């Protein structure tokens, strides 16, 4: 219970120091608006081949644009 009281006091103190903004403040810019969330990523590509009746799988990582 002491911990809860300390946390609550910290939240109250922090809220006292934050400035009160009006509702007409401009919204924060959207960081995904210009298509920056697409880019390069690694993708595992596996190829299966048969050698003397046995299945041999070879995998490698390739960079793909998504």
What can you tell me about this protein's structure?
The chain starts with a helix and ends with a strand. Strands 1-2 form a two-stranded antiparallel ribbon. The protein has one helix at residues 2-17, and strands at residues 40-51, 54-65. The protein is an alpha+beta fold. The mean pLDDT is 77. It is elongated, with a radius of gyration of 27 Å.
List keywords for this structure.
66 residues, alpha+beta, two-stranded antiparallel sheet, 1 helix, 24% helix
Summarize the structure in short.
By secondary structure, this protein is an alpha+beta fold. The chain has 1 helix and 2 strands; from the N terminus they run αββ.
Overall geometry comes to elongated
**Low-confidence stretches at least 5 residues in length (pLDDT < 50)?**
none
How does the major sheet shape up?
2 strands, antiparallel
Number of helical stretches of at least 4 residues: 1
What order do the helices and strands follow?
HEE
The order of strands across the largest sheet is 1-2
How many strands? Answer: 2
Class from helix and strand fractions: alpha+beta
Radius of gyration of CA atoms, rounded to a whole number: 27 Å
Fraction of residues in H or I helices = 10-25%
Beta-strand residue fraction: 35-45%
Q: What's the end-to-end separation, in Å?
A: 50 Å
Average pLDDT confidence is 77
């Amino acid at each position: 219970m002491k911990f809860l009281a300390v946390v609550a006091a910290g939240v109250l103190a922090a809220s006292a120091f934050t400035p009160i903004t009006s509702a007409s403040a401009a919204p924060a810019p959207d960081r995904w608006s210009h298509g920056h969330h697409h880019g390069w990523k690694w993708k595992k590509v596996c190829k299966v081949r048969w050698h003397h009746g046995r299945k041999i799988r070879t995998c490698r990582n390739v960079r793909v644009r998504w």
